[in-house]
């Protein structure tokens, strides 16, 4: 199988031969850090454009089509506009928290990049509790929203932040439980182990109906966690104008915006990793020929293909569903999703113990 | 400045001390579709009170009309409820004709009804899109505009304008219909019938949409009557109030159509009334489009109109409810006093009653089903 590990290994050995180990490690960190920032910016540009094109396609219109070929540089122009705009800090706001909040949102999104395997042997940090790390770090993002809502000294922002707090804390539970069901099946918390456990078939196929239920619950919960419609109550444009980021402008707003899209990418990447096999090609049992052919497709294409498919599904939600009300939102989580995912987890555990999965 | 006035003594400022949150929704707010200003008092997310503040788009149209001749003042009324401009003009023309004692030709009558019903569909289409947008679904807005644009094109061909049409004049209509009119209206009916199922699939049947609309913004029939609600708002509470049926004008008494009422009284009932009303409007248009009588499109009237001394009142059913035009004449070429009874104003007054105890999302849903057009309320 074609792999990026040869390139990374050669860079690693060259750095270690040329410099002493400490300098080499620092240099590697710098390279990885700049790659992450580059990926971050690219994802923002691509996903915003994708959102606009998908929405345009669903709404019988053309979408951006003036800047660059087929409007592909539209988001670059938007970013430039946001950069030169004044970042206002409203009078009466808590200036320190107000300016800190967007950076926390960004940092959380960046930290979540670490354990994701983008291709075969292409992972920043393969820590042995990768899934736990993801669940733990992603729940910090609520702090940035609460901080922004509180520090803005705006009633709309405050309401949006309170909604978001209730929402993210609730939906974290069912997202976590559906992640755990895959951990139970694969028997490991490490992201790469989970991917290798799907070499003979993805968990969504191998795990029978319980894995499918877990997948659906996961998608619903992460849509809520990333504050996307139909769960975009924290922003709720027609109710709270812009919710928690009502008072933000310029680049500070852009950071929130960027963090939202990168978060969407990350949760979809996690979904693809856990349920759809990450970079693992589609393998079916003992079909040697078929499996061999699938291996010729590069693993990075598999990963990004699955991730962007899930992103498309989440965008599809956004452009077709109305928004839920806050009490209905919490009812859905506490009365339906949480009990279902708990029972589902029991089923998965039973299945794993009895070895009923493929 | 405000602290010294009497008005605010018993309103928001005092309640703020009780720990309630007071929020200004509007005059610039995405859900108010214009410059409506609502001062809402909240306990957490629960609404304690809603107080509409009006006047941001008041242009004193009634006063302006007093200095305009009976031919001129009709044009101003297109700017009141701009989504049913034809029907506003129609009400004014009816009132002037009543004073002049003119009988208008049959052709003009039928054209007027056709235009009214096309306007009603266009207005309901826009409301439908905006309603879905209020609830957070953006896509239906564009689907609604696809059909609405077709109506606008028809209007543009015959009346020369797309939004603020001035087509009805005392004595009939300003010009004859465009030769393409009948064909294009039939094309529109065809388009509408092939697309209308999308409305149900996309919005009406949606689980989230139904849960947002059902049992929200309840208005009983008694309350609807006592607040003076008319149109789809009152019919959504089961009140029979269609002017086209109760006090038929033009050719409505010869047409077959149902008066739509829903007993529910909640936001979903009001929603269903409008959706079903569009089908009835299509039915009316289908009955008339092939039967436009030949003849004059305008009755002969004098160049300068003078209404006899007295009071005249006419009413029509606009897309939002009952529009009444009251003219007091002193026998001059301009009216002495004009009063419009606009449907939006009375419908808005029921908002506070509907949403008390609901959530902020309920306020937006209930307000959406009132189908408010702010220039109609403020005039």
Topology:
The complex is a heterodimer of chains A (358) and B (379).
Chain A (H helix, E strand, L loop, with lengths): L4 H14 L2 H38 L15 H11 L10 H17 L5 E3 L2 E2 L6 H9 L2 H11 L3 H32 L4 H6 L6 H4 L1 H18 L11 H4 L9 H26 L12 H8 L3 H22 L5 H29 L4
Antiparallel strand pairs in A: 1-2
Chain B lengths: L12 H4 L4 E5 L11 E7 L2 E8 L7 H6 L6 H5 L7 H16 L5 H29 L4 H21 L8 E2 L2 E2 L7 H24 L2 H7 L7 H6 L4 H5 L7 H4 L20 H23 L20 E8 L4 E8 L7 E5 L1 H7 L1 H5 L4 H11 L3 H5 L1
Antiparallel strand pairs in B: 1-2, 2-3, 4-5, 6-7, 7-8
Helix pairs in contact in B: 4-5, 5-6, 5-12, 5-15, 6-7, 7-12, 12-15
Structure description:
The complex is a heterodimer of chains A (358) and B (379). With 358 residues, chain A is an all-alpha fold. Chain A has one domain. Chain A is 70% helix and 1% strand. Chain A has 15 helices and two strands. Chain A has a two-stranded antiparallel ribbon with strand order 1-2. In chain A, a hairpin with a 2-residue loop joins strand 1 (117-119) and strand 2 (122-123). In chain A, helix 4 packs antiparallel against helix 6 (141-151) and helix 7 runs parallel beside helix 15 (326-354). The two termini of chain A are 24 Å apart. The mean pLDDT of chain A is 84. By secondary structure, chain B is of the alpha+beta class. Chain B folds into two domains: 2-53, no CATH class; 61-378, Cytochrome-c3 Hydrogenase, chain B. Helices cover 47% and strands 12% of the residues of chain B. Chain B has a three-stranded antiparallel beta sheet with strand order 1-2-3. In chain B, strands 6-7-8 form a three-stranded antiparallel beta sheet. In chain B, a hairpin with a 4-residue loop joins strand 6 (310-317) and strand 7 (322-329). In chain B, helix 12 runs parallel beside helix 15. The A-B interface holds A 55, 58-61, 155-156, 159, 163, 229-230, 232, 236-241, 319-328 and B 21, 23, 29-31, 45, 132-139, 141-143, 146, 202-203, 206, 208-209, 211-212, 359-362, 364.
